Each structure stands twice: as C-alpha cells, then as structure tokens.
Amino acid sequence: MKSVHRFLLWGTIIAVLAAPAFAERKAMSWTVDGVARRGIVVYPDKQSGPAPVVLAFHGHGDTNVNFAGVELHEAWPGAIVVYPQGLPASRDGLSGWQTEPGMDRDRDLKLVDEILVSLHKAFKVDDSRIYATGFSNGGHFSYLLWAERPQVFAAFAPVAGRIRNAVPKLPKPLLHIGGNNDHQVDFSDQVEAMEIARMVNEIGRAHV
Length: 208
Known about the structure:
Layout: H1 2-18, E1 23-32, E2 35-44, E3 51-57, H2 64-67, H3 72-75, E4 80-84, E5 87-88, E6 95-96, H4 107-122, E7 125-135, H5 137-148, E8 155-159, H6 187-201
Parallel strand pairs: 3-4, 3-7, 7-8
Antiparallel strand pairs: 1-2, 2-4, 5-6
C-alpha cells in the first residue's frame, strides 16, 4: 500500500510540474499627450526569463475587449500579449489607428512607445522578440510601425493590411494574411503591400 501511495504522490508532483503556466490578465493605462489610453495585457503568471511581446491592434470600429477574443495569448502562453484600445477617428468617430506619419499628432506611435516603456518596468521583456500584428486598420498600423519603428520590432503579421504612403525601408520578417474575397480591404491593395515587402526584403515574387 505504501508503494501505491508513493506512486500516486510522485504522479501528482509530476503532473503539477508539467502543468502549463497560467496566464494572468490585467487592464493597463497610459497617458499620451494628456489623453488617457487603455489596454488589456495578458502575461504568464511566472517568468523564468525575459518574455516575448506581441502588440495586437483591433480593426476600425472594434474594441480591444472584442479583439482579445482572437486569443493570441492562448496560442502563445509564454508571451506578453497587449490588446490596446484605439481612439475615435476624425473621419467617422469610430475607434481605430493612424495610418500615416504625423496623422493625429502621432498619437498611436506615441502610445506604442509608452506601452513598451511600461512593459519594461512591469515585466522582464525580451527586446529581440517584440512583434506587432493587427486586423484591417490594425494591419495598416502594423505596416506603419514597420516603417516608423523598425528597430523596435522583430517581425510583423498584418491581417488584411495595406501600406499608405509610409513605405518600410529596413528588411524585416513579415507574415501577411489576406484573401481575394475581402470586400473591406481591396485585395489588390494588400497584394501591393506584399510586393513592397518583397522588394524591401529583397526576395522573390510574393506568393498570393
């Protein structure tokens, strides 16, 4: 009987040690040019070392609470995933992100800077693994980050994104997700963005 108890005890210990780390979630806020900004940050409950960071930007008119439903933090539980909230756009009042340098006084580029400063204060951050992704308008902003903050990010993954006038110049890994049945962001604009990325990265023709 003692051997059985010992077996069950060791089995329990192994199961606990092998269990995946749980994610913690908290609301964070930042002040940019006197304006309060907010976001959801999901992070590992235990850090054994510096963690990668993913900034995930919702689409135009969406919310960060809803966009957190894509559950990037579930796909990468070891990362610090930030879902920021966009501000109302001047053109229609719906929440979103700037798509050009200088637009809205660079409120969103400044927000990204503030987010990263605060993350460095709160967590152990792996500066070599900071990534940006986003959907639609959030994808456009991801491309803008490539153009304006290339030294900060290791790679980008826009979904249904396009490039306005700010063209990236520094080669970076890119994953662009899109489809030719997209009626929100014309796929030809997405293909153009992928071709620009191809030229910047000096690789063969993009596969679409």
